[in-house]
Structure formats: structure tokens, C-alpha cells
């Protein structure tokens, strides 16, 4: 079994929405062969809670407006460290970068086929690592000024 056209349409739209809100490391997996509850997972992350919320809101708004899709379940909203949007056909995970590294969902799903995403979404790969590196350099420069 493979992801349906509807699932792919939802994934593409959600990935583009996440990219438009500057999400990091957007990736999608076809999990239809290993899970009976959904066809595909979309993973995205952001370096802070506010941006996680912003990405989630944009995904919800775009899927609703463009495809008439509303999540049947939304979890993790209050903390905005890991928000899950369940659209039945797809499940979207938007995680704070620290949660993304800690839980490493990619490791769980790496044997599943990756779904093709819009170019802007593909271009986000490696952004979390770049952000962490520049943040570490800033922090180290800030500490240098304290001495």
C-alpha cells in the first residue's frame, strides 16, 4: 500500500506552509505499509516555542482554506514543544528543535519511503544544525564579552 493522492496533497500543502513559516528540517514519510492508522507523517521543527505555534497555525489555516481539511485531534498545544496535528490521512509533528533531536522520530521511520516535497521545504534540511551552530557562536561571543 502507498500513500493516497489525498495524503500526498495534504503533505505537500502542509510542507509548503511550514516552509513559508521558516520551519527547519521538513521531511515526510509514507508510513502506510507499517501503520494502519495513517498514510504519512510530516516532521518539521523550529528553534523556539513561538515559531512552533506559528508553523502549526499556518499549516492548519492552509489545509483548512485550500483543501477543506480540519484536524480530528491537536495535541501538545499548551507547551508548544511538540504539537501533533492528526488529519487521519496524515499526521503532522511540529517540534521544538531540542525535542526533535531528543526524540529522533526520523530514526523510527527511516525505513519508510520519503515523500517528495516542494523545493522550499527540501531547502530547509540542515537548517536546525546551522541555527544551533550560529546560536552557539553567539552565546560564546556573549560570554567572551563578560570576562
Oligomeric state, counting identical vs distinct chains: single chain
Shape, principal axes of CA atoms? globular
User: Mean of residue pLDDT?
Assistant: 91
- What portion of residues belong to β-strands? 15-25%
> If strands are numbered along the chain, what order do they take across the biggest sheet?
1-2-5-4-3
Q: What is the CA-atom radius of gyration, in angstroms?
A: 16 Å
* Protein structure class: alpha+beta
Low-confidence stretches: none
Describe the structure concisely.
By secondary structure, this protein is of the alpha+beta class. Helix content is 48%, strand content 20%.
SSE topology sketch:
Layout: H1 5-20, E1 24-30, E2 40-46, H2 49-67, E3 73-75, E4 82-86, E5 90-96, H3 97-103, H4 105-109, H5 119-122, H6 127-146
Parallel strand pairs: 2-5
Antiparallel strand pairs: 1-2, 3-4, 4-5
Task: Characterize the structure shown.
This protein is an alpha+beta fold and 147 residues long. Helix content is 48%, strand content 20%. It is built from six helices and five strands; from the N terminus they run H-E-E-H-E-E-E-H-H-H-H. The protein has helices spanning 5-20, 49-67, 97-103, 105-109, 119-122, 127-146; strands spanning 24-30, 40-46, 73-75, 82-86, 90-96. Strands 1-2-5-4-3 form a five-stranded mixed beta sheet. The longest helix is centred in the C-terminal third of the chain and has 20 residues, at 127-146. The chain is globular. The relative contact order is 0.21. The model has no long low-confidence stretch (mean pLDDT 91).
Amino acid at each position: 500500500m502507498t500513500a493516497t493522492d489525498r495524503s500526498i496533497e495534504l503533505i505537500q500543502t502542509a510542507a509548503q506552509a511550514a516552509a513559508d513559516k521558516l520551519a527547519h528540517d521538513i521531511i515526510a514519510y509514507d508510513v502506510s505499509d507499517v501503520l494502519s492508522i495513517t498514510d504519512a507523517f510530516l516532521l518539521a521543527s523550529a528553534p523556539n516555542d513561538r515559531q512552533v505555534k506559528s508553523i502549526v497555525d499556518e499549516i492548519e489555516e492552509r489545509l483548512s482554506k485550500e483543501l477543506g481539511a480540519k484536524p480530528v485531534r491537536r495535541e501538545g498545544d499548551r507547551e508548544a514543544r511538540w504539537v501533533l496535528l492528526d488529519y487521519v490521512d496524515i499526521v503532522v509533528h511540529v517540534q521544538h528543535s531540542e525535542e526533535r533531536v531528543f526524540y529522533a522520530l526520523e530514526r523510527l521511520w527511516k525505513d519508510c519511503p520519503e515523500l517528495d516535497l516542494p523545493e522550499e521545504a527540501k531547502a530547509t534540511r540542515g537548517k536546525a544544525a546551522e541555527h544551533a551552530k550560529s546560536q552557539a557562536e553567539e552565546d560564546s561571543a556573549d560570554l567572551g564579552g563578560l570576562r
